[in-house]
Design a protein that fits this description.
- By secondary structure, this protein is an alpha/beta fold.
- Helices cover about 25% and strands about 35% of the residues.
- It is built from 12 helices and 25 strands.
- It has a 10-stranded mixed beta sheet. A 6-stranded parallel beta barrel has the order 14-16-19-22-20-17. Strands 1-2 form a two-stranded antiparallel ribbon.
- The longest helix is centred in the C-terminal third of the chain and has 18 residues.
- The relative contact order is 0.08.
Length: about 450
């Protein structure tokens, strides 16, 4: 059975025919079909690492739908968007956010962008903000040199699958010296049951340019599993800055496996701010290659794992140039039998000089069955590097809760206050409009934990 109103769909199952159908519906050139078919072969050849949880291993790729879309061209006004989509996007606050503080919005519904618009003055400055399909066709000279170069299909099994069946996603190009003052944002919505969403994004910030890019993700709750396997590549050139912010609140039936990686050239700056609240399982490890002298990379992340959830997140930073600096701060909260932890790697090339890394991982356990793990790998040589690693695991102090309850707070309010104190420095890194929303989401998760 195909979703109501879907003009374009491949039905269930993954095969060469599925890939050919997607490519034909998108009217792609033969070379892109060949790229997809080769990636599909790679997907079937690769296996998952042994540590990947059983929920992911048990995923039946033949029981998913790989392409579902009402239309393949995004609308430019909200009035043109279908009533169902509009009411959902309004409930998520997207049109209101666009009016109040965003410079541009792309809203994806299942496989394709339903709405895409950017402020005129940015278009006049040469900024490109569109979907990957248009990047491939209209902006090929800028798009093609970097596409699948940062994350090739052979990188991992989910990157290979994405390369075979990708659709939607964002292509952003900020020309030299252009500073985009307000954020651009992409929203991803899975609406169809037993569906795989495979957006593919490429972000290029040219010399001296600046960009804040934000992502938000949601889905309704089904009894069956869905898969979100995105690939995001970014290139930040000399003296440029990229801030990349994600708020992931998938429903508890979504397997979320995201490959996101890019490089920073000389004196460039990349900052990731990641929030993970939803999904059944999340596997996500943003990677930054610091390839130019004095390049800087920072990853700030937090995750909450409630009962039955596993948030396996972390960071991979590779120092391959002199005087490069990285900073990692990871905070996780595990509730009931949830598992939230850090899996990361910091590598400094042997012939580099004057590199610095600081890594902090802090975990908070709520309930006697909650679990966490910190699994860092540090690969460093040379005597001019500075490495600092700090990790802690703690639980809520019952004495502190008792004290707060004596002051008239309920146990739930006292717990929320303590948890907010734990994540406050990190949540404040998000833009104001999102930090308020995140605090509310965190409080909801914690209040469920204490009934």
């Amino acid at each position: 059975m195909h979703p109501h109103g879907s003009t374009f769909h491949t039905g269930f199952g993954l095969s060469e025919e599925t890939v050919r159908s997607i490519s034909a519906m998108k009217k792609e050139a033969p070379e892109w079909l060949q790229f997809r078919l080769q990636a599909l072969k790679t997907f079937f050849q690769l296996s998952l690492p042994k540590w990947v949880p059983e929920d992911v291993r048990a995923l039946d790729f033949q029981q998913l739908q790989y392409y579902v879309a009402e239309g393949q061209t995004p609308k430019r006004t909200w009035a043109e968007v279908s009533p169902e989509m509009l009411s959902t996007f309004e409930a998520m606050g997207i049109p209101e956010k666009e009016r109040s503080f965003l410079a541009g919005v792309e809203a994806q519904w299942d496989s394709e962008a339903a709405y895409s618009k950017m402020q005129q003055h940015l278009q006049d400055q040469g900024v490109i903000f569109t979907d990957s399909h248009e990047g491939l066709h209209r902006y090929r000279k800028v798009f093609q040199p970097y596409f699948a170069k940062v994350v090739p299909p052979s990188d991992n099994r989910f990157a290979a699958l994405n390369s075979a069946v990708f659709s939607g996603g964002s292509f952003v190009y900020v020309p030299k010296g252009v500073k985009v003052a307000q954020p651009l944002q992409a929203f991803f919505r899975i609406q169809t049951e037993r569906f795989g969403q495979f957006e593919r994004s490429l972000i290029i910030v040219d010399e001296g340019a600046e960009l804040t890019f934000m992502e938000g993700c949601t889905a309704p709750i089904w009894n069956t599993q869905s898969l979100h396997a995105a690939v995001v590549e970014f290139v930040v050139k000399k003296d440029a800055k990229l801030q990349f912010i994600t708020v992931q609140n998938w429903s508890k039936n979504v397997i979320n496996a995201v490959t996101i990686r890019g490089w920073a050239e000389e004196n460039a700056e990349v900052r990731f701010i990641d929030g993970h609240i939803g999904s059944k399982v999340t596997l996500k490890y943003p990677g930054i290659l610091l390839k130019g002298r004095r390049a800087r990379g920072e990853v700030l992340s937090f995750a909450i794992a409630h009962q039955g959830q596993r948030q396996d997140t972390g960071t991979r930073i590779f120092h391959v140039a002199d005087e490069t600096t990285s900073n990692i701060l990871s905070k996780s909260i595990s509730i009931d039998n949830g598992w939230a932890g850090y899996r990361g790697k910091v590598s400094i090339k042997p012939d580099c000089h004057g590199c610095k890394n600081r890594t902090e991982c802090h975990s908070l356990l709520l309930g006697e069955h909650s679990q966490t793990g910190t699994l860092p790998t540090v690969d460093v040589s040379g005597n001019t590097q500075q490495i600092r690693h700090e990790a802690s695991v703690s639980s809520i102090d019952e004495e502190k809760l008792f004290y707060l309850q004596q002051r008239g707070l309920s146990r739930s309010a006292a717990m929320s206050l303590s948890v907010n104190g734990f994540v406050n420095d990190l949540v404040q890194s998000f833009p104001l409009e999102y930090s308020v929303e995140l605090k509310r989401l965190i409080e909801m998760e914690v209040s469920h934990a204490v009934g």
